[in-house]
Amino acid sequence: QVQLVESGGGLVPPGGSLRLSCACVASGNIFTIATMAWYRQAPGKQRELVAQITSAYRTTYADSVKGRFTIFRDAAKNTAYLQMNSLKPEDTAIYYCFAAWWENNNAWGQGTQVTVSS
Predict the structure, then answer these.
(1) pLDDT grade, residue 10 (50/70/90)?
(2) Residues 6+ apart with CB under 8 A from 115
(3) Residue 100 has pLDDT above 90, yes or no
(4) By the 8 A CB rule, do 87 and 69 touch?
(5) What are the CA-CA distances from residue 94 to residues 6, 49, 62, 107, 110 (Å)?
(6) What are the phi and psi torsion angles at 103 (to 5°)?
(7) 8 Å CB contact between 72 and 85
(8) pLDDT grade, residue 27 (50/70/90)?
(9) d(C-alpha 72, C-alpha 110), whole Å
(10) Which are the contacts of 85, defined by CB distance < 8 A and separation ≥ 6?
């Protein structure tokens, strides 16, 4: 069983920064082998992939966040992070952590609200 616990959301003015954390609580070495990702869902919109990082530390980003967001992971802490800089109002959404491992195993976090507003 895998549990993803997110933290770090909040209210920030345009141009500000936030760091989201996703702690992976699991037995064995699931975090080590999992691809970790962050998705977001704004009101009235579909959930979209923001960034992901593989177990080999290969990263991909949505075009809308390239150059502003950075995904990284700390194996010693079983935690994945999303550093968000130069935030825009259109980044406002609920952000979800996601983990996938082996062929058909995956887990979602509970979501954390990010609001970018003056």
Answers:
(1) very high
(2) 10, 11, 12, 92
(3) yes
(4) no
(5) 11, 12, 16, 16, 9
(6) -85, -50
(7) no
(8) confident
(9) 20
(10) 17, 68, 69, 70
SS3 call for 30: helix
DSSP, res 82: E
Q: Do residues 34 and 11 lie in contact, with contact meaning Cβ atoms separated by under 8 Å? A: no
**Do 47 and 40 touch, CB atoms closer than 8 A?**
yes
Distance of CA 8 to the CA centre of its chain: 10
- Which pair of tokens denotes residue 22? 């996703």
Q: Model confidence at 34, in pLDDT bands (50, 70, 90)?
A: very high
Q: What whole-number distance in Å separates Cα of residue 75 and Cα of residue 80?
A: 8
Which position has the token pair 């990082």? 53
